[in-house]
């Protein structure tokens, strides 16, 4: 588990997503993202599902021990495959059921702060169950933060003037990628944190120079789907 304050990092991550979508009209919410086939509204609905999942999990603590932490949790989600394709299609159809894309923003603005408040009230020594796993509360919050930060970057594909995710939230996501990469590998020095997150998640392909600098670990990319 990362030593970064998990509740504050999650608040930054969700506030960052809100800052991206808050001023968009219905047309803006129908721009493309880095997630194949998803518009901004579609992706926001997906992240909204995480906030709703957080509310359920944090309100339903379970007994430990944990079977995964904030890094090993992601090894069960390699990305791609039939399940991911079905989920992507379900999200698109669900988002299309809203009369207007801005209604998804309204629901996000109601749900995300509630999830952050629930995170702040949760027992940091407690455990929750989600996605078939048991995690310590701080580790669970770190997984939510990592996903929100990566999707924040996804949302901005056609929104170059959108604000960047908060630095504390980015540190959590970077710590996750570091854990997946292993201690023996070092990321290329020219990469910014955002470069690292986009390349580690397969949003941006590795260059020949990247592969040369990474060496054997280049074959592990993407680290997270």
Automatic annotation (TrEMBL):
<dbReference type="InterPro" id="IPR034660">
    <property type="entry name" value="DinB/YfiT-like"/>
</dbReference>
<protein>
    <submittedName>
        <fullName>Maleylpyruvate isomerase N-terminal domain-containing protein</fullName>
    </submittedName>
</protein>
<dbReference type="InterPro" id="IPR024344">
    <property type="entry name" value="MDMPI_metal-binding"/>
</dbReference>
<dbReference type="GO" id="GO:0016853">
    <property type="term" value="F:isomerase activity"/>
</dbReference>
<dbReference type="Pfam" id="PF11716">
    <property type="entry name" value="MDMPI_N"/>
</dbReference>
<keyword id="KW-0413">Isomerase</keyword>
<feature type="domain" description="Mycothiol-dependent maleylpyruvate isomerase metal-binding">
    <location>
        <begin position="11"/>
        <end position="155"/>
    </location>
</feature>
């Amino acid at each position: 588990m990362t030593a970064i304050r998990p509740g504050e990092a999650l608040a930054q991550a969700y506030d960052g997503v809100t800052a991206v979508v808050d001023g968009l009209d219905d047309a803006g919410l129908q721009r493309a993202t880095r997630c194949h086939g998803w518009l901004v509204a579609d992706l926001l609905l997906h992240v909204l599902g995480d906030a709703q999942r957080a509310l359920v999990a944090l309100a339903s603590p379970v007994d430990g021990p944990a079977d995964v932490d904030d890094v090993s949790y992601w090894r069960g989600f390699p990305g791609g495959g039939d399940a991911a394709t079905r989920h992507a299609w379900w999200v698109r159809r669900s988002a299309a059921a809203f009369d207007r894309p801005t209604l998804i923003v309204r629901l996000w603005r109601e749900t995300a702060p509630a999830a952050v408040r629930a995170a702040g009230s949760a027992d940091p020594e407690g455990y929750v169950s989600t996605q078939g796993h048991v995690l310590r509360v701080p580790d669970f919050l770190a997984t939510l933060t990592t996903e929100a930060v990566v999707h924040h970057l996804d949302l901005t594909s056609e929104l170059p003037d959108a604000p960047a995710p908060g630095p504390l939230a980015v540190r959590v996501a970077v710590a996750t990628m570091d854990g997946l990469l292993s201690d023996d590998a070092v990321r290329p020095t020219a990469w910014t944190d955002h470069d690292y997150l986009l390349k580690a998640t397969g949003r941006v392909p590795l260059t020949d120079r990247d592969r040369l600098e990474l060496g054997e670990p280049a074959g592990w990319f993407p680290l997270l789907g």
